Amino acid sequence: MVSSYEILRKEPAETVRRYIRSGGYASHTAGLGKDLLQANLAIMPEEFALDFMRFCQRNPKPCPLIGVSDTGNPLMFTLGHHIDIRTDVPAYNIYRNGLLSSTVADLTSLWSDTLVAFAIGCSFTFEHALIEAGIDLWHISNNTTVPMFRTSLNTVPAGCFQGPMVVSMRMIPDQRVSKASEISARYPLAHGSPVHIGDPALIGIDDINAPDWGDPVPIQAGHTPVFWACGVTPQAVIQDAALPICITHKPGHMLITDIPNDAENPIIATTTM
Amino acid sequence: MVSSYEILRKEPAETVRRYIRSGGYASHTAGLGKDLLQANLAIMPEEFALDFMRFCQRNPKPCPLIGVSDTGNPLMFTLGHHIDIRTDVPAYNIYRNGLLSSTVADLTSLWSDTLVAFAIGCSFTFEHALIEAGIDLWHISNNTTVPMFRTSLNTVPAGCFQGPMVVSMRMIPDQRVSKASEISARYPLAHGSPVHIGDPALIGIDDINAPDWGDPVPIQAGHTPVFWACGVTPQAVIQDAALPICITHKPGHMLITDIPNDAENPIIATTTM
């Protein structure tokens, strides 16, 4: 059972996850599961989970927490039907003591009763809304990766989790900056409004042409650099904490949930007794 | 150093907390710390904290989490300057094995290295906004306690925490129901939009004149009952879980934070390195 990106673009989230689960699709998820929240993933032993959850609560812009598994339970039942976090993400990075040890397509053999999975909102949600509003995003039009930078903005620490905030940058036409800010503010589960607008030096970015992750974008006349908190922040913070084991999604290869992008809360509706 | 409600109404939050801390004010906090978030309080041993935090994440309407202490640290530094959770709430209820054991004004002798404090948004925030919009709230005009009801709506469980959602009810003039809903939706940190509008029987409330907590309000012609998720939900859930020890605020005697009611996030601004 193998499918292509073009076919899966038209399929509902549950079908896309079924293909991913069976090994029939292993590529990036941008544009799939239309209008549904996608999520960054972090899996770690329970002994670190309370501090990591505090870290997310204290840093809601880089780490908008949208779901947490029960310890040892791979089913993320608040985010959708039959979401099995061991198999439903196209590719996973395994870190041991802070270093990338391998990239795998399935966690079934690695899963254990002590693990807790965290799903964190991602920028696909507000990027989609910006494009719908007619705001061109250079990295998407040119099929590159958004540029990301370490900043001089500190996160609020919790336990072993601490470090600088990572931001993503998009060049926005000057007269649309206010609109772009207003649109993204509607999506607090996907990083919300920008953390900085304008001069990169003010948040400790020395060279806008040399991102720490992703690809540079050309400086365009009549455009302003706009910076959003980025889901790479928790990944960087987790790596620095050098946990004995930690699992994340491979960048761009996200978890597709059943939660609408514009949901008030990222929870499948509560049931009546 | 003793003060009265009328004097403290004009004082900033830090001054109010100083009076509370020194034992100079021990009454309710409605109307104090104008335009600032007030919070419900739950303190419990660390072994239950991860499950309780998951419970809040899964039930954001009854349990909008606005702050979590480090284990054993009584200073809730993300919510304001010098907030000491052992002393800065006017009155505390101590529960042992789910039963109210005592009500005290100070937790200093009870505090231990194993405790974690949770602050949860409260309805004062949106009630204030409704009144500002000219929507009269009967329980406030008549100086009674808002009526609260157990419902047939289930919370999403986490570990030992589970049970029905508790709601508060306000009679809203029919032509203002939509506006009241829209206004409260702006405050996701204070229970957000209503969970139900209209027929109480649909959410398992048999007798609107017999609330489980608080005082009944008269049924008024041309008014609709509107139900919001209520901060009594986590208190009821915690009592049912019968933790060996758990501490909450005495109802109405809330923590006053330094966070503006309309803040995007309940975090004192991150610092630049």
UniProtKB/TrEMBL annotation, chains A, B:
Membrane-crossing residue ranges in chain numbering: none
SUPFAM superfamilies reported for this sequence: PSTPO5379-like (SSF160920)
Origin: domain of life: Bacteria
Keywords: Lyase
UniProt keyword annotation of Lyase present: yes
InterPro entries reported for this sequence: D-Glu_cyclase, Putative_hydro-lyase, UPF0317
Record-linked Pfam families: D-Glu_cyclase (PF07286)
EC number(s) recorded for this UniProt protein: 4.2.1.-
Assigned protein family: Belongs to the D-glutamate cyclase family.
Family annotation (HAMAP family): Hydro_lyase (MF_01830)
Protein name as it appears in the record: Putative hydro-lyase K1718_06740
Species whose genome carries this gene: Roseibium porphyridii
Source species taxonomy: Bacteria, Pseudomonadati, Pseudomonadota, Alphaproteobacteria, Hyphomicrobiales
